[in-house]
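Lab meeting, item 3. Inverse folding demo.
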């Protein structure tokens, strides 16, 4: 039992770290070829891989608790972002403007992330399970593609619409939504071997334990 708890703690720690990092860096727009994406796209898809692994190894109830833990960590980030903005700096601190630029955008981005995160992570769990039941297919590659095809569109649409509405023109928002969707879907599918290997490894370790 001790090793099982240890593995769950490591996965939960990685999951929440990815969520916090994603929220902080999501305000920066970058290009990958013709696609305009937020920098968080390079790391955020890993959160879905981790939640799928936790679901498969530890069950739906534990997976949802881990998701809610990530939600709580984002909420704490919102609180401390506000504190960072409103708390007066020391007279000797000369970089307060840089902090204000970064953290002024964080609350709106995190609010968008809250909604996208809540719907997308729960859809991911549902779809990953549902594809196994509906298609009688336990293949992780297929189940991951099925869940990510739905999940990443929901996540991209909600996040971009709320984060950048009014900041960019409609055609730019549409481009950003589909850019994020395509890149995140690609990264998520490429993560399939990691998910498959980790699930097999953990199941084997738990059997021996």
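The presenter then showed the designed sequence:
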């Amino acid at each position: 039992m001790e090793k099982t708890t240890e593995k769950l703690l490591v996965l939960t720690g990685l999951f929440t770290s990815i969520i916090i990092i994603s929220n902080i860096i999501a305000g920066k727009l970058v290009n990958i070829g013709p696609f305009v994406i937020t920098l968080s796209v390079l790391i955020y898809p890993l959160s879905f891989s981790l939640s799928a692994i936790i679901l498969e190894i530890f069950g739906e109830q534990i997976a949802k608790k881990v998701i809610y833990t990530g939600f709580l960590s984002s909420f704490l980030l919102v609180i401390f972002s506000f504190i960072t903005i409103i708390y007066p700096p020391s007279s000797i601190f000369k970089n307060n403007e840089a902090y204000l630029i970064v953290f002024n955008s964080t609350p709106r981005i995190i609010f968008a992330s809250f909604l996208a995160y809540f719907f997308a992570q729960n859809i991911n769990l549902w779809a990953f399970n549902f594809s196994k039941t509906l298609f009688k297919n336990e293949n992780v590659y297929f189940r991951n593609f099925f869940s990510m095809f739905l999940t990443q569109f929901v996540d991209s649409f909600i996040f971009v619409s709320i984060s950048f509405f009014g900041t960019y023109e409609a055609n730019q928002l549409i481009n950003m939504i589909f850019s994020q969707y395509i890149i995140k879907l690609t990264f998520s599918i490429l993560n399939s071997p990691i998910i498959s290997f980790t699930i097999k490894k953990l199941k084997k370790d738990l059997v021996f334990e």
